[in-house]
Amino acid sequence: MSDNTITNLTVSSYVSLITLDSIPNKTSVLSEIFTTISDAGINIDMINQTAPYRGVVNVSFTISDDDLAKAITVLGQFKKKIPDLRVEVNSNNTKLSVYGEAMRNMPGVAAKLFTVLAENDIDIKLVTTSEVDISCLIYEKDTAKAVEAIKEAFDIL
Predict the structure, then answer these.
(1) CATH code of the domain in which 75 resides
(2) Which pLDDT band, with edges at 50, 70 and 90, does 118 fall under?
(3) What is the pTM of this model?
(4) I need a labelling partner for 123 at 20 to 30 A (CA). Which of 96, 115, 131, 140 fits?
(5) Of 77, 92, 107, which marks where a domain is finished?
(6) 20 and 86 in a common domain
(7) Are residues 82 and 100 in the same domain?
(8) How many whole angstroms separate alpha carbon 24 and alpha carbon 139?
(9) Contacts of the segment 41-50: beta carbons below 8 A, 24+ positions apart
């Protein structure tokens, strides 16, 4: 893999991960949940949804730690509408994003990134991607080690 595959690494701290388990697989339900969160003034960053299974999906997303209490309150109202809904919350995480235009046509970038993190015993909590970006949510305590390892592996200054 060329040394210029990844041209930028960004770090966002104080990130909370919220996972909603057992949401009915209806776009209208997701729309209502995310509209309610938006109406509360909460900005959502990473979003990941599982494939439907037995009529339900799980959705994980990230927000600022500063908005966590408000989000818990807002999401609490959905327990009445979705009795099987479980809300799992985890705060004090870091989002690492690697970027590079060359990723668009370069196989193996995610594999290399995951290998670098695995070799440094850094667990990934959530991953989102685009053609030119991979974002990983990790434990805050692993931030410095992850940044150093990624910079070294991808020759990022």
Answers:
(1) 3.30.70.260
(2) very high
(3) 0.92
(4) 131
(5) 92
(6) yes
(7) no
(8) 29
(9) 41/67, 41/70, 42/67, 42/70, 42/71, 42/74, 43/67, 45/12, 45/15, 45/95, 46/95, 46/126, 46/128, 46/135, 46/137, 47/128, 48/126, 48/127, 48/128
Mean pLDDT, residues 93-110: 94
The answer to whether 62 touches 95, Cβ cutoff 8 Å, is yes
Secondary structure letter of residue 53 according to DSSP: B
**What are 5's two structure tokens?**
């595959």
pLDDT higher than threshold 60 for residue 157: yes
Domain count, the chain: 2
pLDDT at 5: 86
In angstroms, the CA 117 to CA 122 distance is 5
Report yes or no on 110 lying in a domain: yes
